[in-house]
Write a structure and sequence with these properties.
The chain is of the alpha+beta class and about 200 residues long. It is built from five helices and eleven strands, in the order αααββββββααβββββ. Helices cover about 20% and strands about 45% of the residues. A hairpin with a 2-residue loop joins strand 8 and strand 9.
């Protein structure tokens, strides 16, 4: 009894299966984080000092809860944050340039020695602007001690600094750089939720 030739189609399928096995694990889908990525981009994240972002901001205190839209333009020696919505008195613009800070609302234009004092006086609440510029990149502020917990992939998960607790809930890939997409900042009875809808970092070539 003679043996029939092995079907060519079956040989092809076997070869493809062997090649797939030798190739190892398939590449991660676009937009999926992996271990080691945060550490690999550390220098670029720290060097990032220019960006534009749009976000939705929720503010909750023991007495009230409200929200607003945020447009933030950041440069090495200047920043501009535009709040539009209920807790910004309709429309508020905070600007900082070389030690000068101003807040413009529907009531007029105001100045103070620090942006924190300015927000407290005019809005009734404030955020630590110097540290916030670091926190929004997933970094601790430089001035004071902190405690940082990482997730299973090595990305920041919870940061404690200056009485604030920052939780990083989600991340987005923007111009080949992983940056926070959803953050929750808590200080005493103040809770701020920041959800970035558009991250545009400006990276050096």
């Amino acid at each position: 009894m003679s043996c029939r030739p092995f079907p060519r189609l079956l040989l092809t399928l076997l070869a493809l299966a062997l090649l797939a096995g030798c190739a190892g694990r398939a590449p991660l889908p676009d937009g999926e984080r992996a271990a080691g990525q945060w550490q690999a981009q550390a220098e670029r994240t720290e060097a990032l000092d220019t960006w534009v972002l749009a976000a939705r901001v929720g503010l909750r205190t023991s007495q009230d809860a409200t929200s607003a839209n945020l447009d933030w333009s950041q440069h090495p020696h200047y920043y501009r944050m535009l709040l539009s919505g209920p807790f910004g008195s309709g429309r508020s613009t905070l600007e900082g340039r070389e030690g000068r800070f101003s807040l413009t609302t529907s009531e007029g234009r105001f100045e103070a020695v620090t942006p924190e004092a300015l927000m407290e006086e005019q809005l009734g609440w404030s955020l630590p602007m110097g540290a916030l510029q670091d926190w929004v990149r997933g970094l601790p502020g430089e001035a004071t001690d902190y405690r940082l917990a990482e997730d299973d992939l090595g990305f920041p998960r919870r940061l404690e600094q200056d009485g604030w607790e920052i939780e990083y809930r989600d991340w987005t890939l923007a111009t080949d750089l992983w940056l926070p997409r959803r953050m929750i900042l808590t200080y005493a009875d103040l809770r701020v939720t920041l959800v970035v809808t558009d991250w545009r970092p400006v990276l050096d070539d």
